[in-house]
Specification:
This protein is α/β, with parallel strands linked by helices. 38% of the residues lie in helices and 20% in strands. It contains eight helices and eleven strands. It has helices at residues 13-25, 36-45, 62-71, 87-96, 108-120, 161-171, 180-186, 195-208, and strands at residues 5-9, 29-33, 50-54, 78-82, 100-103, 135-138, 141-144, 149-152, 155-156, 218-221, 225-228. It has a five-stranded parallel β-sheet with strand order 2-1-3-4-5, sandwiched between helices. The protein starts with a strand and ends with a strand.
C-alpha cells in the first residue's frame, strides 16, 4: 500500500465507487466526496497528495473549487474530469490552476498513469546543458535545479505541478529561446495546444516576478517563444 492519498470528487456515486476501487487496487489510499462542499470538509481533516475533481457538479463547480484552493495556497496536483473535452474547456481548467484535464469517458488506466506522473513531479524536459548551475537565482528567489524546489526569503514557494514542470523545462536551457511547440511537447501538452503553454507561463510569472506585467526573468520573444534569464 502506498502512503499517497488521493481525494476523488464527483457527483456520480457509481464513478466514485469505480475510481475508489481501482485506485485502491493500485496501491493508493482513497477518500471520496460527492460535491465541493463535502470536498472542503474532507480537506479540513486530511492532506491528500492529489485531487481528482469533476468539473460539472451541483453547487460550486470544479473550476471554482480549483481556483479557490489555489488562492488558498494548496499546491497539490489537481486533475480535472469533464464531459466537455474541447481545447477551450481544457484551457479554462489550466487557467483555474489545474495540472491536468481528462475528458469523460476515460480509461481508468489513463487516469492512473497521469496521476503517477504528477505525483512523481516528472518533468519530461529538454536536455540540460552542461553549464547549468545547481542553483539559479531569480531576484530574491532561488531555484534548486536538481530538486525542483523554489524558495525565497520567507521559505519555500509552493508551485503547482504544471508550474514546477514549466520552470524545470525553462531552467534546463537558461538564456535559450524555447518555442511554444517545444515547450508543449516537453510538458506533454501537444493535444491541448500551444495556448496551454501561454496559460502556464502567465501562472508561473505570478510566482517568480515582482511585476508579472513587466517580467525581469521570464521573457516573451515575439514570434519565437519564451526564454528564462536568471539573475539578481
Amino acid at each position: 500500500m502506498s502512503d499517497e492519498h488521493i481525494l476523488v470528487v464527483d457527483d456520480d456515486p457509481r464513478l466514485l465507487r469505480l475510481l475508489q476501487r481501482y485506485l485502491s487496487e493500485n496501491g493508493y489510499r482513497v477518500s471520496t466526496a460527492l460535491d465541493a462542499l463535502a470536498a472542503r470538509d474532507v480537506l479540513q481533516r486530511i492532506q491528500p497528495d492529489a485531487l481528482v475533481l469533476d468539473v460539472t457538479m451541483p453547487g460550486e463547480d470544479g473550476l471554482s473549487l480549483t481556483n479557490s484552493l489555489r488562492k488558498d495556497g494548496l499546491s497539490l496536483p489537481i486533475l480535472l474530469l469533464t464531459a466537455r473535452g474541447e481545447p477551450a474547456d481544457r484551457i479554462g481548467g489550466l487557467e483555474a490552476g489545474a495540472d491536468d484535464y481528462l475528458g469523460k469517458p476515460f480509461e481508468p488506466r489513463e487516469l492512473l498513469l497521469r496521476l503517477r506522473a504528477h505525483l512523481r513531479r516528472v518533468v519530461p524536459a529538454l536536455p540540460v546543458v552542461d553549464e547549468v548551475p545547481d542553483i539559479l537565482r531569480l531576484g530574491e528567489l532561488e531555484f534548486d535545479v536538481k530538486r525542483g524546489l523554489l524558495s525565497g526569503p520567507q521559505g519555500a514557494v509552493h508551485l503547482t505541478g504544471g508550474e514546477s514542470a514549466l520552470l524545470g523545462v525553462l531552467t534546463s536551457q537558461p538564456g535559450t529561446v524555447l518555442s511554444r511547440e517545444a515547450i508543449a511537447k516537453a510538458l506533454e501538452m501537444d493535444e491541448i495546444g500551444e495556448r496551454a503553454v501561454d496559460v502556464q507561463v502567465t501562472r508561473l510569472r505570478r510566482r517568480i516576478e515582482v511585476d508579472p506585467k513587466e517580467p525581469r526573468f521570464l521573457h516573451t520573444v515575439r514570434g519565437k517563444g519564451y526564454v528564462l534569464k536568471p539573475g539578481r
